[in-house]
């Protein structure tokens, strides 16, 4: 269970996230919606500590992750996988190596750090690519793939990290409608098949309605809606 308590972030005195409280049971698929600048990205980034809160706490299974330092912080980040709008792949490296990078967060042995991947790591990475129908691209440079293919590589990288939570920040913002479906289906399958909690920032309300079992609405940093998609329709 993820608990967000009074989470607040200011940048140079301006409020970006304002006293947000949320309880997210394991296995939820939560869509965070709101206009550009509403604070969605800052909220997500405070969960894995890419940003630190000005006030408030983030608890995972009762432990305050906003206080973690050093090795404990690295372990926590390994349990949160990020999926970004811009994919964040190493473009000149091949697809399989990009997916294997996800194992770095999981297996921090010298072998992994030196990229001496084990046969098991390779098998896990390949099967993640197969799961998203891109195994035949394993030896291609990541930058040669389409946006939808690159985002599936990023999701495969997130999956092999064996995370508790996937934090997806506008994962479909640069994709066409067909690839939007393919990428959202991939996130939905990870959520369903592995029970991994997904927090997903989304611009597109129709997509959020169709995929998420709960929507959280932010406006000027404040939580203005929290409920199932059907409730939002009732209020509209
Ligand atoms: P969203 O993801 O909903 O578009 P953000 O979390 O990116 O919203 O931004 C919320 C507010 O915080 C905006 O006003 C934005 O300009 C500001 N902000 C976000 N990150 C930074 C930063 N690193 N430095 C200064 N201001 C920031
Ligand atoms: P190199 O050092 O060969 O340039 P890196 O290992 O630094 O490559 O990775 C390049 C990019 O991939 C960076 O943007 C990094 O943040 C990202 N990256 C690496 N490993 C992971 C991972 N496990 N999960 C998410 N992103 C990763």
From TrEMBL:
Enumerate the GO terms in the molecular function aspect. Answer: ABC-type phosphonate transporter activity; ATP binding; ATP hydrolysis activity
Transit peptide as a keyword of this entry, yes or no, is no
Domain ABC transporter, by residue range, is: 2-236
Q: What are the record keywords, sorted?
A: ATP-binding, Cell membrane, Membrane, Nucleotide-binding, Translocase, Transport
GO-annotated cellular components: membrane
Query: Could you tell me the superkingdom of the organism this chain comes from?
Result: Bacteria
InterPro entries, A to Z: AAA+_ATPase, ABC_transporter-like_ATP-bd, ABC_transporter-like_CS, ABC_transpr_PhnC, MetN_ABC_transporter-like, P-loop_NTPase
Q: What is this protein called?
A: Phosphonate transport system ATP-binding protein
């Amino acid at each position: 269970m993820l608990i967000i308590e009074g989470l607040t972030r200011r940048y140079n005195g301006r409020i970006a996230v304002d006293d947000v409280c949320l309880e997210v049971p394991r296995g939820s698929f939560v869509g965070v919606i709101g206009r550009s600048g509403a604070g969605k990205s800052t909220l997500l980034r405070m969960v894995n500590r890419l940003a630190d809160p000005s006030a408030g706490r983030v608890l995972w299974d009762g432990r305050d992750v906003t206080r973690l330092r050093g090795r404990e912080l690295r372990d926590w980040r390994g349990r949160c996988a990020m999926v970004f709008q811009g994919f964040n792949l190493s473009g000149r490296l091949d697809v399989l190596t990009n997916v294997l990078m996800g194992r770095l967060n999981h297996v921090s042995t010298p072998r992994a750090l030196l990229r001496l991947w084990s046969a098991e790591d390779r098998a896990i990475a390949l099967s993640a690519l197969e799961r998203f129908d891109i195994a035949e691209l394993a030896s291609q440079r990541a930058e040669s793939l389409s946006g939808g293919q690159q985002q599936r590589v990023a999701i495969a990288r997130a999956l092999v990290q064996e995370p508790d939570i996937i934090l997806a920040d506008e994962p479909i913002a640069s994709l066409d409608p067909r690839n939007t479906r393919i990428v959202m289906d991939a996130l939905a399958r990870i959520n369903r098949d592995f029970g991994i909690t997904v927090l997903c920032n989304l611009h597109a309300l129709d997509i959020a309605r169709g995929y998420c079992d709960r929507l959280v609405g932010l406006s000027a940093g404040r939580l203005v809606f929290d409920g199932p998609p059907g409730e939002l329709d009732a209020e509209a």
